[in-house]
Design a protein that fits this description.
heterodimer; A: 455 residues; alpha/beta; eleven-stranded mixed β-sheet; 17 strands; 35% helix; globular; B: 91 residues; mainly alpha; 0% strand
């Protein structure tokens, strides 16, 4: 099968998420509307009592299946590790083999690709913020370990105090790789090393729009003929020993507050929404390929990327601008890039954070631009917010929705704030074109238009 | 050989075998990390992190010879560090 020149296809997807660490379990959890929230770790409350009490923990995969060694586990940051796991899945699904050539340079080679015409595009919001948070904890508390011991020795009768002091005990040493773990480009660089990719290795840091923009950059590089393939997506890991990242978002009044009980706090587009659900993290990567590459390899496409645009509100570091035309300009440009009018968009995977202002502004824009017929859901109603990885996870959901002609429900949406065609139950849908959009702290707005591939 | 020394050697061996893919190499106290196990710089850093964790102490990395070291040298290094920490502890 040949494909029109200049077109860009998704040929592989991979995920590490709170809903599953492979595409099939992830997709079925989405359709089932699962969102296994838990109370935040109790010891975080030793340091801080916040307004939000829940998060979505991440159960990391068995890394050995992705060739991750003990050396990797001890030296790489968590975002790089989950990124490797997700990108490895995407390459496997695309049928692209990474040949390991131990003892020579480069140590890995992408079979049947020119390594200089392959790229890596990664979005991440906070890089590996957990690394400096955790290591600064180590730096402080290992330095006063003798003081903690003396305090415990002075209060031998107070068991509770002794336990609390013991709980403050830190590793003896700051990890020697803390700088290399913290660099936002560490995720992309580690993917390049592991897969032998020697073209552009790019990191986009644009808060919650990071990985949408990263995928958009990959799309453009392939569309312009600069690359044959790219591994594009995002990774984020947000838990640290003392809950510092959680506290930062909570202090900003952005996180979902207690509601009617466990699992009801996260309510995108609902009248009673109160903030987003803090996710421990996640990663998602896609393999994007040119039409020529897909034809040459006789590969199978999951979906086609047909449009991308980004704009900026130039307004606030932490708030979306109401009545700005920047988001609508982004949508116009993305649709223009795809060469389709708004009426042809059948489905919008919304940013849908569940914060008061985001959902109000976004729903008004969707109504103005697309009317009330286009199906809308928020994957964050299930996945929580993974910040820099959110766009890539939602890109995967959008591609799977087009491929499988199904969309997932918008969880906890009982009283919608707008009369839009929200997906209230998961099920079949007839979809040709879809838009996935994200807006980030700093005013970043980005959207990707995807097209169904008929098989 | 003291029981402390024997214990250290076993635990050093545990960390080394977890860090290096050594299933085809017979390890003894003369085994050299770079020459015999092909250790690279990342593996040596991981080895130090592993030793920190195993013995719950911080080893002075700057004292490790740059060229190569044997397993016996590492066990000596660990033993000396632990004994120094023990004698520095207030009684």
């Amino acid at each position: 099968m040949t494909h029109p020149a200049g077109n860009v296809f998704v040929t592989g997807l991979g995920v590490v998420s709170s809903l599953g660490n492979d595409i099939e379990s992830f997709w079925h959890a989405c359709l089932d509307g699962r969102s296994p929230t838990e109370k935040i770790p109790a010891h975080w409350c030793e340091y801080y009592n916040g307004a939000s009490e829940v998060w979505l923990p991440l159960h990391e995969p068995d890394y050995s299946q992705f060739g991750v060694t003990r050396v990797d586990l001890l030296t790489l940051g968590r975002p790089a590790l989950i990124g490797i796991a997700a990108a490895s899945q995407a390459l496997t699904q695309a049928g692209i083999v990474v040949e390991k050539t131990e003892g020579t340079y480069p140590a890995a080679v992408l079979q049947n690709f020119d390594s200089f015409r392959a790229g890596i595009f990664v979005g991440t919001g906070l890089g590996a913020a957990q690394a400096p948070f955790n290591n600064y904890y180590t730096h402080l508390f290992s330095g006063i370990s003798s003081v903690l011991q003396q305090a415990a020795d002075l209060h031998t009768e107070d068991r509770q105090l002794r336990e609390r002091l013991a709980g403050l005990r830190a590793h003896p040493r700051v990890n020697p790789m803390v700088i290399c773990q913290t660099m936002p480009n560490a995720i992309a660089a580690n993917l390049a090393i592991r897969f032998g990719v020697r073209g552009p290795v790019d990191t986009t840091c644009a808060a919650c729009a990071s990985s949408t923009i990263a995928i958009g950059k990959a799309f453009r590089a392939i569309q312009r003929g600069e690359l044959d393939m790219a591994i594009a997506g995002g990774a984020e890991h947000l838990s640290d020993r003392a809950g510092g990242v959680f506290m930062g978002f909570d202090r900003l009044q952005t996180l979902a507050k207690p509601y009617r009980g466990a699992g009801t706090e996260n309510r995108p587009f609902d009248r009673d929404r109160s903030g987003f659900l803090f996710s421990e993290g996640g990663a998602s990567f896609a393999v994007l390929e040119s039409a020529e590459s897909l034809t040459r390899r006789s590969g199978r496409a999951i979906a086609e990327v047909v449009g991308f645009a980004e704009t900026n509100d130039a307004f606030s570091i932490a708030s979306i601008k109401d009545n700005s035309n920047a988001i609508e300009a982004m949508i116009d440009r993305a649709l223009g890039n795809a060469g389709i009018p708004p009426e042809q968009i059948d489905y919008i995977n919304a940013h849908g954070t569940g914060t008061e202002i985001n959902d109000a502004v976004e729903s008004r824009i969707i109504e103005r631009k697309f009317g009330r017929q286009t199906r809308v859901n928020s994957s964050k109603s299930l996945l929580g917010h993974t910040i820099g990885a959110a766009g890539a996870l939602e890109f995967a959901v959008t591609a799977l929705s087009l491929e499988r002609q199904e969309i997932h429900l918008c969880r906890n949406l009982e009283n919608p704030i707008a009369d839009l065609a929200f997906s209230l139950v998961s099920g079949p849908a007839s979809l040709e074109y879809a838009l996935t959009q994200n807006f980030g702290f700093g005013g970043h707005n980005a959207g990707l238009v995807l097209h169904r591939v008929q098989t | 050989m003291t029981s402390l020394r024997r214990d250290i050697e076993l635990r050093v061996l545990k960390v080394v075998t977890a860090t290096f893919p050594v299933q085809h190499v017979a390890l003894d106290e003369c085994t050299m990390l770079r020459k015999d196990l092909g250790a690279d710089s990342m593996q040596l850093i991981a080895l130090m992190i592993g030793l920190d964790e195993e013995f719950d102490t911080e080893f002075a990395v700057d004292q490790i010879p740059k060229d190569d070291v044997s397993l016996a040298w590492i066990s000596n290094f660990v033993e000396a560090t632990l004994l120094a920490a023990q004698s520095a502890r207030p009684s």
